[in-house]
Each structure stands twice: as C-alpha cells, then as structure tokens.
Design goal:
This is tRNA pseudouridine synthase A. Its EC number is 5.4.99.12. It is an enzyme of class 5 (isomerase). Formation of pseudouridine at positions 38, 39 and 40 in the anticodon stem and loop of transfer RNAs. This protein has about 260 residues and is of the alpha+beta class. It has 2 domains: about 90 residues, Pseudouridine synthase I, catalytic domain, N-terminal subdomain (Alpha-Beta Plaits), CATH 3.30.70.580; about 150 residues, Pseudouridine synthase I, catalytic domain, C-terminal subdomain (Alpha-Beta Plaits). Helix content is about 20%, strand content about 30%. The chain contains 5 helices and 10 strands. Strands 1, 2, 3, 4, 5, 6, 7, 8, 9 and 10 form a 10-stranded mixed sheet that branches.
Length: about 260
C-alpha cells in the first residue's frame, strides 16, 4: 500500500465546498471520481481541512491510501485529464503511511481579498468581495495585534461549530494593499488582501474575523474593540460572516521532511 499526498488548486465558485456533502458536487467528490476512473479503486481522500461553498484554494493538500503502482510523476497529468477545468492537481508525492494531511499540518494560511475600487474587477469578481466605500486600512491593521497568540476564538466561530475546544494559535496576520491596477487619477483604494496564518481554524473563523475587520474599517467599531470581542468568547459580540468568494486557502505547511 502507498500513501499519496497531492496538492489541488481550485476555483470554488461552482462547488459546495471541499468535503463531500449529501447534495454532491464537491471538490472531494470530483477528485475521488477521477481517482476511481484512473485506478479502479474506490478511495476516500483526506483533506488538510474543509472549505465552505464558494471558497477557493491556491494550495489544498489531501492524501489517500492506494494499491496502485502508477509512478508518482504520472498522477498529476492523469488526474487533470479527468477533472473539470476549475480543479487542478498541482503536485503529488509519496509519503509515509502514518502521514495525515490534516493532523500532520503545522501551519495554515488563508487570504481574504477585498476590492476597494468603485468598479468591481470583471476578471477578479469571483475572488474578491467588492466594497467601494472608503475603508480605514490603518485602523484595520491596528486591530490585528490582539489576535496573535494562543486564545479561545469562540467569538469568531460559527454557532454550528462542533469542536470540543475553540483554542487555536494565530502566528501572524497582516494586510497588504495592491494598487497596481488602479485607474490613474481615480483615487481608488486598490485590492486589500488580508493574510492570516495559524495552527488551525474554526468553521467560518476567518470570514467572521474579516466581517469584524470590515466594520472597523467602516468606522462602526474602534480598533481596540477587537480585543474586547475576543475576550467575550461570544459569537454575538463579533461582526457578520463575510462573503465566501473573497476567501482562499493560500497554503498549508508541514515538517521539513514531508
């Protein structure tokens, strides 16, 4: 038996998330069907985490156990020929049998993108939340410091969360602004990218943090309120859940030997 670790990149616009759902049409469904078509095996893949409907992934690792003897260097091309054009396997390697794509992960990074320009980007509209109103990016950045460290993030977890503990560790959080596509003289805000890296994330956690950051940027909350929200450990204290299409799983990191 072999344990194969793959990395998939996908546009989540037309899917119900990564993990199999009763209604079907998930990234996992398509990957498992492609593997079955290629090898004749009914395998179950294990992702490094879940993504919600409409969320994208630049690099989403997953692993599965197989008895196939297909050389590792042939898997990527063979599967991509059997997958929809908005799902692409970008890497494959063989790993030890005890490796698990979720449990073995050390760090995960998500990016949330806001188009702050007055006119949405025709080509990026499926990957950006459009917010033409003025945002105070400095205030948004100021509020990030209190999120760093090991905390109970109940305030930023979905009410439907079934996790026994809401304690997670956030290693870094930052906001970058890309004005390279701004129209000259139009006083546009550019594309505002929020990056957050942690040991793991709760259901809707990044989107709820983002919804709270947007309220700070809009002047509805003060930057120092982020700390109070975190300490309350109450979902009602935080802002709304931001739209899914602006969120992308950026990458997942493992030990050096993987």
């Amino acid at each position: 038996m072999r344990n194969v670790l793959m990395t998939v990149s996908y546009d989540g616009t037309n899917y119900y998330g990564f993990q199999t759902q009763p209604g079907g049409n998930t990234i996992q469904d398509h990957l498992e069907a492609a593997i079955a078509h290629l090898t004749g095996e009914e395998v179950k893949i294990h992702g490094s985490g879940r993504t919600d409907a409409g969320v994208h992934a630049r690099e989403q690792p997953f692993h599965f156990i197989t008895s196939s003897h297909i050389p590792i260097e042939r898997w990527r091309m063979a599967l991509n020929g059997r997958l929809p054009s908005d799902i692409r396997v970008i890497g494959a390697k063989e790993v030890p049998l005890d490796f698990h794509s979720r449990r073995s992960a050390k760090r995960k990074t998500y990016r949330y993108s806001i188009n702050g320009n007055r006119v949405p980007d025709v080509f990026g509209r499926n990957y950006q939340y459009h917010h033409p109103g003025k945002l105070d990016v400095s205030a948004m950045r100021e509020s990030l410091a209190c999120l760093i460290g090991t905390h109970d993030y109940t305030s930023f977890a979905s009410r439907r969360s079934t996790k026994a503990s809401h304690v997670r560790t956030i290693f870094s959080a930052r906001i970058d602004v890309d004005t390279s596509l701004d129209i000259s003289g139009s006083r546009e805000q550019g594309i505002i990218h929020f990056y957050i890296t942690g040991s793991g994330f709760l259901q809707h956690m990044v989107r709820i943090i983002m919804g709270t950051l947007l309220e700070i940027g809009e002047g509805k909350r003060r930057p120092e309120e982020m700390k109070v929200i975190l300490e309350q450990k109450n979902r009602t204290a935080a802002g709304p859940t931001a739209e899914s299409k602006g969120l992308m799983l950026w990458n997942v990191e493992y030990s050096e030997h993987v």
